[in-house]
Amino acid sequence: MRASVVIPALNEERRLGGLLADLAAQTRPPDEVLVVDAGSTDGTVEVARRFRRVEVLEATPPVARGRNLGGMRTGGDVVVFFDADVRVRRDFLAGLLGEIERRRLDVACPAYVPEGGANPAVRTFHAFFNALIKAFEGALPSGAGHCIAVRGDLFRKSRGFDPGLKFDDIELVRRLSRGRRFGVVGEKVYVSDRRYREDGTLNTFMRHLLMSVFFALGKFEWANRVEYEFGKHTS
Predict the structure, then answer these.
(1) pTM
(2) Between vectors from CA 148 to CA 144 and to CA 154, what angle results, nearest 5°?
(3) Per the CB 3.0–4.6 Å rule, which of 12, 13, 93, 194 could disulfide with 43?
(4) Is 10 part of any domain?
(5) What's residue 201's pLDDT?
(6) Number of domains making up the chain
């Protein structure tokens, strides 16, 4: 089973190298890695080019365009989309692909866990949302752009992520899972807590809770009114 990785990035020179190093050290390395830069003004592209076997593509915001450009260029049996600020353990890809194959999944998402150093409230919130996603995986398939895995042929034959939505990631999971096999796998992706630090822990949680209601109702366009921009961080 060939595995392709797609990483959209915008001004992520401080974070991207960590993920690329993690991918290079995998016990089961990816067959291709595409970094899709959305016009970074820092050293994001230079960081990506330091890694062997990483191809850099150029795109423009929103993030859906980068995900689509990379995803449609892949040749893997499974395409794994990552956000540029996540980290994974050395056996992540082997475990992910193994579970996809064993359970014959078409779309899969891991658990999203805060990086070390996150405060207890952030850890509790993530545990709550992970439990929610797992509890409703059959009725309301959901996942975040931190990491989404899709069968390659399924993605390339689809219209991809919707550039008209801020939360194109969850809409894609819901749409491509319809009538197919979706599952939450046992692997973990370690995500940055910077939005909690920048916007406040309680504010960020309440925003996500509100958006969960929109997503449960299938009203993805309602979430466009929520302030949440790709690549805009103060830390």
Answers:
(1) 0.91
(2) 130
(3) 13
(4) yes
(5) 73
(6) 1
Looking up tokens 């940055």, which residue turns up? 192
Buried b (16+ CB within 10 A) or exposed e, 132-164: ebeeebeebbbbbbbbbbbbbeebbeeebbbee
For position 233, what pLDDT does the model report?
52
- Judge whether 122 and 203 are in contact, CB under 8 Å: no
What's the domain range around 198? 3-225
Q: Residue 232: what pLDDT?
A: 56
Q: Say if CB 93 and CB 128 are below 8 A apart.
A: no
Residue 172 lies in a domain: yes
Evaluate whether residue 234 is within a structural domain. Answer: no
- Residue 19 belongs to some domain of the structure: yes
Output the domain CATH number for residue 55: 3.90.550.10
C-alpha span between 56 and 59 (Å, rounded) = 10
Q: List the structure tokens of 161.
A: 């992520």
Measure Cα distances from 139 to 175, 177, 178, 184, 213 in Å. Answer: 12, 10, 10, 13, 14
Q: How far apart are the first and last CA of the chain?
A: 38
Q: Copy the structure tokens of residue 182.
A: 């979706």
Can you give the pLDDT at residue 5?
98
pLDDT beneath 50: ranges in the chain:
none
Q: How far is it, in rounded angstroms, from Cα 7 to Cα 48?
A: 10
* Closest C-alpha among 157, 185, 28 to residue 101: 185
Nearest of 30, 180, 189 to residue 109 by alpha carbon: 189
